[in-house]
Amino acid sequence: MSEAGLPEALVGALHELARVKRLLVALDFDGTLAPEVDDPAKARALPLAHEAVLRLRALPHTRVALVSGRALRSLEEVSGLPDDVLLVGSHGIELRLDNPEDAHVLDEAEQARVRVLDEVLGQVADSIDDVWLEPKPAGFALHTRLATEHNSRVAHLVALSEAQAEVDDLKIRQGKNVLEFAVRSTTKGEAVEHLRRYIDADAVLYAGDDVTDEDAFAALQAHDLGLKSGEGPTLANHRVAGPTEVAAVLDLLATYREGGVHEQ
Ligand SMILES: O=P(O)(O)OC[C@H]1O[C@H](O[C@H]2O[C@H](CO)[C@@H](O)[C@H](O)[C@H]2O)[C@H](O)[C@@H](O)[C@@H]1O
Q: Any idea of its EC number (predicted)?
C-alpha cells in the first residue's frame, strides 16, 4: 500500500495516466462517487470526490464525464456539477454534451412502448409491498431495496415475464436492488466509446461499481485505466473497496495532473 492507502500498482498507473495529453475521466455515480442510500434522490458524491471532479475539470486537456443509469435530469440534480462536465444518463441513451442538439429524442413507437411498460410495471409495483417504480425517459427502474427478499424475488419474476410478454425488444438490466427496463439497448460501453471519440482522448479512466459498468470496462483499451469500486467479478484492471477509496484515487489523479506533468 502507498501513503495514500491505495495499492502501489494503482498509484503507478495513475501517475502514468496523469501524463497523457487529452484525458477523459468517466465516472459512474451511485456506488462509485456516491455511497448507496435508500432514497436515490438523496444520493450525493462524497465531498472529496466532488472536489476532485471540480479540480480535474478545471485542468487543460481534461474532460470529466458522469456515465450513469439514472435519467439525465436525476443525474443533473444529484451531481450538482457545472455544465462543462459531460453527462450520460439512462445507461447511454441520454447525453448532455456541449451542445443542446446532442439531447436524445424517442420516436413515437418507442414512446408507445414506454407507455405499455408504465402500465405493466406500475401494476407490479402497486401490488407488492415496498417495491416502487422510478420513471426514466426510455423506461423504468423497478426498485426492491426496501422489500423483503421474497417480495423482491417475486417482483423481479413477475415484472420480467409480464414486461417481456407485452413489449418487444426490451433491454433488461439487473443492478443493485433494481431491475431496469428500457426500450433502447444502448450501453455504457457505447457511451464511453462515444465520449472517447468526442474529446479525442488519448486515454480514459473509467470507474464503476455495478454490472452495467462492465460494458464500459469492456470498451477500455490497453493504455486506459479501469477501476472497479467494491466487490464482484470485473474486467477492470484495478479495484478499490468503495466510494471512499474512489475519492482518494480522483484526488491523487488531480494532484498528479495539477503538477503539470502531462505531455504537451
Ligand atoms: O449507473 P449508476 O450511476 O450507478 O446508477 C445506477 C442506478 O442508481 C440508482 O439506484 C441505485 O442507487 C440508489 C441510491 O443509492 C439505491 O437506492 C438503489 O438501490 C440502487 O439501485 C438509480 O435510482 C437508478 O435509476 C440507477 O439506474
A: 3.1.3.12
The CATH classification of domain 108-182, taken from the options 3.40.50, 3.30.160, 3.30.70, 3.40.1350: 3.30.70
CA atoms within 13 A on the CB side of 86: 23
Query: pLDDT tens for residues 121-157?
Result: 999 999 999 999 999 999 999 999 999 999 999 999 9
Tell the residue number behind the cell numbers 413477475, with chain if given. Answer: 158
Residue nearest to atom 25 of ligand 1 (CA): 70
Amino acid in the structure at residue 132: W
ipTM for this model: 0.98
CA-only gyration radius of the chain, Å: 19
CATH number of 8-104+187-258: 3.40.50.1000
Span from the CA of 119 to the centroid of ligand 1 (angstroms): 22
Q: Is 157 in the pocket of ligand 1 (CB under 6 A)?
A: no
